[in-house]
Write a structure and sequence with these properties.
two-stranded antiparallel ribbon; 285 residues; Rhomboid-like fold; 4% strand; two-stranded antiparallel sheet; mainly alpha
Length: 285
């Protein structure tokens, strides 16, 4: 019988199919990324460049240089920055959750229980200060563009919003009476989606998704004032969304659901998240 070669996608160029793998790490590489040496064909990362923690830091720093700016990522960053400026203009302090925008938009369990359900999503677009805003927007810019470039604007936006709702559910589960704001739950969702893809050999973050997630989880549990539930919930939401979008049994690991099946999968994650939040604030969980 004729031998068949399984096609996958290049870990640096996820839209380019290839059957060649690095002789050292096994990652798929296209012709543009092949480095020929005495021990076979290697990827750029294994051909004498930094490895380990140093390579992870370099990958994170240069990811934004390789990926074209995405319209959805730009819009999400613009909305968050615009809301922060509007909050300052309405009387909010630089480092306090004050002013009418925070009062009506921050995630707070007792108010959600009273029927103010919009807070489970509006809280993701509010930030408690310029440093909080800066770190979240930098992370969104670095990682969000890569995921948007790979999945397209529709599925990427769906994952972001579903993860934001999952982050709100997690925050309400662990600390329902603590006002919570920030896009970090949604950003963790982006990381979770990237982790699922990289476990399936689609290296959306250059093969560093696991290290990035671990580092951020360590920071989550080490720094006071961070919403642990929000981060864990967002991460779970991103992982669940990407798992539901994946089409298992296909030869190309990038293959994912589109159209109505994709919408149904993402809406399902959102509904479950809102149901968890409802159960928590109503005293059912």
């Amino acid at each position: 019988m004729p031998e068949t070669t399984e096609l996958t996608v290049c870990y640096r160029h996820p839209r380019v199919e290839t059957a060649v793998r690095c002789s050292e790490c096994g990652r798929p590489i296209c012709t543009e990324c092949m480095v020929f040496g005495p021990v076979g064909i290697r990827c750029p990362d294994c051909s004498g460049r930094p490895t380990g923690a140093r390579q992870t830091a370099r990958t994170v720093r240069t990811a934004g240089e390789r990926v074209p700016a995405g319209a959805v990522t730009i819009a999400l960053v613009s909305v968050s920055v615009g809301v922060f400026v509007a909050a300052l203009g309405s009387g909010a302090g630089w480092r306090t959750l004050s002013g009418p925008i925070f009062e009506h938009g921050a995630l707070y369990g007792p108010f959600v229980a009273d029927g103010e359900w919009w807070r489970v999503i509006t809280g993701a677009f509010l930030h408690s200060g310029p440093i909080h805003l800066l770190f979240n927007m930098l992370a969104l810019w670095w990682f969000g563009r890569s995921l948007e470039h790979l999945l397209g604007p529709g599925r990427y936006l769906g994952i972001y919003l579903a993860s934001a709702l999952a982050g709100s559910a997690g925050a309400l589960l662990l600390s329902p009476t603590t006002p919570t704001v920030g896009a970090s739950g949604a950003v963790f969702g982006i990381l979770g989606a990237g982790l699922v893809l990289e476990r399936n050999r689609v290296y959306v973050f250059g093969g560093s998704a696991m290290a990035i997630v671990v580092i951020n989880l360590i920071l989550t549990f080490s720094i006071t004032g961070i919403s642990i539930g929000g981060h864990l919930g967002g991460l779970a939401g991103g992982i669940a969304s990407m798992l539901l979008l994946r089409r298992y049994g296909r030869s190309a690991p990038l293959a994912s659901r589109d159209g109505l099946p994709a919408l149904a999968a993402l809406v399902g994650v959102a509904i479950v998240s809102v149901a968890i939040a409802y159960a928590r604030v109503r005293g059912l969980a």
